[in-house]
Design goal:
This protein has 488 residues and is mainly β. Helices cover 9% and strands 35% of the residues. It has 2 domains: 369 residues, Pectate Lyase C-like (3 Solenoid); 101 residues, no CATH class. It is built from 4 helices and 37 strands. InterPro entries: Pectin_lyas_fold, Pectin_lyase_fold/virulence.
Length: 488
């Protein structure tokens, strides 16, 4: 059996061969007639990719392996470390039996001695939805704006960094804001989502009045013009919506949390079990709770879970690196497939990760959920078969990059799937994808496939550039980051 690292190297070499005859692309010039440009994905990741992940730090506490359930002992070590200002709780080599419900607070890291040395072993998930490990203590309560101001621009395209408001005097540099707009009947209908019916029952895509938001920080104010820290990943069109800027006070966040260098195994396995929201088997191995920021998961192996990593709404600036998901059981259902990484947050960077185990275990390897705000990015993701797909899941997430992967990438209308998941993604970019590609654009949006070298579905009606020939730069994310930092 090939090792995970060797498989990844083979995948990289294959990609390198394909890029020998690449076509040069001026990515900054790619835009449509409305002015929509490629989103800027360089802000994804820990500390907006401005800083490297934390290096090796001496452990504050070392917990050694022994028999019996170690949940209470590990939790006590995490709590005492957090209370003293933070640090590293290190698990020595060995197997640690634990139960669901471990929580890691701000400024605290749980570190093993390596994926082949330290294993967290769980025999049963308990309450439905209770994660094995959770990062941060935040809740997803309603954020009430301190003030709002209407956006007066007739159209603000994807990739724009400025908006004009009715009253700029209310805003100041550093103000946290949501670029907001409520779903309108006109917008839903124009996207073809107003009359969804499944088995005789009406299906609702994005409910009228639900907010589609883009969290940003005001970088500068000039009269009524606001400059934002990150370019927009969703367009604002006065014809179909009434966009506005909502200022809010940032709640307490939970930064600098890490899980690294360990394996997590659920046995007997839950992988592939029939999806049921009340079923404990659907609880994730790792959950990043709301308002967890500037945190990471790296060098982890997860085996036996239906759902592995859940990044919740209002989570931001997260890196998931070198995470391997092992599916040790076939999926025993025709729909509602399990997921490796579930993204509802923003500025999430998934890199050098992949799915392994049974090639016949159908799963969504990375998905975005309803109205997940961009930018989010997946780099160099590996799968073993075309049954494992990178597939935005539902209801108008926006700003999602997938590049240099052998997985099938699906940016398509899901119609009445689920309860009316409809158009799941806007401003999606498939860049130098080697797997199959099916990229379509919603009537009021746009998705791109650039440099696709795998099979492209004939029904794809998205914007296809250099179809059949890989492009340079090899990585859009890297090119954008170099441009932003002045190192291009």
């Amino acid at each position: 059996m090939l090792s995970v690292k060797f498989v990844a190297v083979l995948s990289w070499l294959s990609a390198a061969r394909q890029l020998v005859l690449a076509a040069d692309i001026d990515w900054e010039s790619i835009k449509n007639s409305r002015g929509d440009k490629l989103p800027d994905f360089s802000y994804c990741g820990y500390r907006s990719s401005d800083k490297s992940l934390p290096g090796s730090t001496a452990a504050s506490v070392v917990v050694k392996a022994s028999s019996g359930d170690r949940t209470k002992e590990i939790q006590a070590a995490l709590d005492s470390t957090a209370a003293s200002g933070g640090g590293v709780v290190e698990l020595a080599a060995g197997t640690f039996r634990i139960s669901p419900g471990l929580n890691i607070s701000a400024n605290t890291r749980l570190r093993g001695s390596g994926v082949e040395s330290t294993t967290l072993d769980v025999s049963k998930l308990k309450t439905a939805g209770l994660p094995l490990l959770s990062m941060g203590n935040g809740t997803n309560g309603r954020i009430n704006p301190s003030f709002t101001s209407k956006i007066t621009d007739k159209y603000v395209g994807i990739g724009a960094r400025t908006v004009t408001v009715e009253d700029g005097k209310q805003f100041a540099k550093g103000q946290t804001v949501f670029i907001s707009r409520a779903a309108t009947e006109k917008w839903v209908r124009q996207n073809g989502m107003a009359d969804l019916v499944r088995d005789g029952e009406k299906q609702t895509w994005v409910p009228i009045g639900n907010l589609i938001q883009q969290p940003r920080i005001v970088q500068a104010v000039s009269g009524n013009k606001l400059t934002l820290d990150i370019p927009l990943t969703d367009a604002l069109d006065q014809t179909y919506m009434e966009p506005y800027v909502a200022a809010y006070d940032l709640p307490e966040t939970n930064p600098e949390i890490g899980i690294e260098d360990l394996s997590i195994t659920l046995s007997p396995t839950c992988a592939g079990r029939v999806y049921n929201e009340s079923e404990p088997c659907n609880a994730p191995a790792i959950q990043l709770n709301p308002w967890t920021v500037d945190s990471f998961v790296r060098n982890v192996n997860i085996t036996g879970f239906n759902n592995c990593i859940d990044v919740q709404y209002n989570v931001s600036r997260i890196t998931i690196e070198n995470a391997s998901f092992f599916r040790d059981r076939d999926t025993d259902r025709p729909g509602g497939y399990p997921t490796d990484i579930n993204i509802s947050g923003t500025q999430v960077l998934v890199k050098d990760s992949g799915q392994y185990g049974r090639k016949t275990a159908k799963a969504f390897t990375v998905i975005t959920q309803a109205r997940a705000p961009g930018p989010n990015a997946v780099l160099r993701h590996h799968v073993q078969s075309d049954l494992q797909e990178l597939y935005p899941h539902q209801r108008w997430a926006h700003g999602f990059l997938v590049e240099n992967t052998n997985a099938n990438v699906m940016f398509v209308n899901r119609g009445t799937a689920g309860s009316g998941q409809g158009w799941p993604i806007n401003a999606g970019v498939a860049w130098n994808v080697r797997g199959g590609v099916n990229v379509s654009s919603p009537p009021l949006g746009i998705n791109w496939a650039i440099g696709s070298t795998g099979p492209v579905e004939s029904v794809s009606n998205g914007t296809l550039v250099s179809n059949g020939t890989a492009v340079t730069p090899k990585s859009l994310y890297n090119a954008q980051r170099q441009k932003r930092k002045g190192t291009a």
